[in-house]
Amino acid sequence: MTEFLTAKRLAITVSICLAVLAVVIGLCTSVGTQKICLAKVISGPGEAPGANIDYEIFVIRLQRVILGALVGAALACSGVVLQAILRNPLADPYILGISSGAGLGAMIAVLSGITWSFWGGSPITIFAFGGALGTVWLVWFIGRFAGKSQVMSLLLAGVVVNAFFSAVIMFLTSIAKSHQIRWTVFWLMGNITEKDLPVLYVSGGLILTGIVLLFSICYRLNVLTFGEEEAKGLGVDTAKTRLVAFSLAAFITAIAVSLSGLIGFVGLVIPHGVRLVFGPDHRQLLPVSAIIGSIFLVAADTVARTIVAPEQLPVGVITAIAGGPFFLILLAKHTKKVGLHFGTGRKTGTG
Q1: Which long-range contacts does 40-47 make (Cβ < 8 Å, 24+ apart)?
Q2: pLDDT tens-digit map of 326-348
Q3: Is residue 60 part of a domain?
Q4: Assigned domain for 351 exists
Q5: Which residue ranges of the chain lie beneath pLDDT 50?
Q6: Rg (the chain; Cα; Å)
């Protein structure tokens, strides 16, 4: 967008996107293998457990839809921030190894056989979260001391760590027991399932807090995209900004991946698409990407759980199938517009 971004314009854009998200949540919650009666849902749960099956099914679906929205927002925002601080359009949680670190943590949890009665009844979320944060520390440590260019060092460190952890995951998968392999592969492809309310509340609160904190440094992210010297000339502490942004992006990614497994394309495609349509200003790019990421993942998960019902597909399969062509269409349209604009200019210039 070439027009100057005002607070009013930003509020209108975000409000429209939120309205679309609300509609998508409502539609996706009502869709499933079993039809539900809206009147029964509105009437409430009833006096005894199982008294109103329609209401209970609606609540379970709503929890899953909300989880999908949170994960989509986290992954999209993480992609926006990583692309800004690394000045690389291909940067996302996968290329920096954060997702593979979480996957390794989840694999260790599955193979260990550890069980407990709190936080969802499984250690997988905790182990995946720990693996993601451990990977962040490792990548940052290597990138900080591996070379003069911190940006290039971070990218190279992320690629190497990602490749190494992916190899370890493949090894662990090959030695896993038969009943563990199916679930593990499903999780590695991305899998959104219903979570206990305490898990949903705490995770949602942490993700939303991280996104708000990222929004508070949008100005510095805008300046950082100009380059190292330009940013320093404008009074921005580039090292501190990069550290804070990287930490927050990694934190919300770790939470998202620990909840849903490895879901690709959201952190890569959504920021690109939003940037092409709405422009590069992070004051608008970050919140709109969060909302569009939520819409995209909620819709993708609805397709995943209904297209081959009663079986369910990993949502990562749907995001990969839908994300690639969607991004190519947006890129082609944007390139065509730019080409026509430049072509007209050249024609006008030659008289």
Answers
A1: none
A2: 767 766 765 665 444 434 444 44
A3: yes
A4: no
A5: 1-2, 338-351
A6: 22
Please give the backbone phi and psi of residue 20, each rounded to the nearest 5 degrees, phi first: -65, -40
Q: Nearest-CA neighbor of 108 among 94, 92, 95, 122?
A: 122
Instruction: Specify if 349 maps to a domain.
Output: no
- Does residue 220 fall inside a structural domain? yes
Q: Are 279 and 50 in contact (CB under 8 A)?
A: no
User: Which structural domain range is residue 224 located in?
Assistant: 7-342
Q: 187 to each of 183, 215, 226, 263, how far by Cα in Å?
A: 6, 30, 38, 9
> In angstroms, rounded to a whole number, what is the distance separating the alpha carbons of residues 68 and 259?
10
Largest CA distance in the chain: 81
Q: What are phi and psi of 116, to 5 degrees?
A: -155, 175
The token pair that represents 10 in the structure block? 């930003």
Measured between alpha carbons, how far is 200 from 190 in angstroms, rounded to an integer?
A: 17
Angle at 78 between CA 199 and CA 69, to 5 degrees: 45
Reading the block at residue 108, the tokens are 């260790």
- The count of C-alpha atoms lying within 13 angstroms of the C-alpha of 261, restricted to the half-sphere facing its C-beta, is 21
CATH number at residue 180: 1.10.3470.10
Cβ atoms 155, 132 nearer than 8 A: no
Per-residue pLDDT reduced to its tens digit, 257-289: 888 888 888 998 899 889 988 988 999 999 999
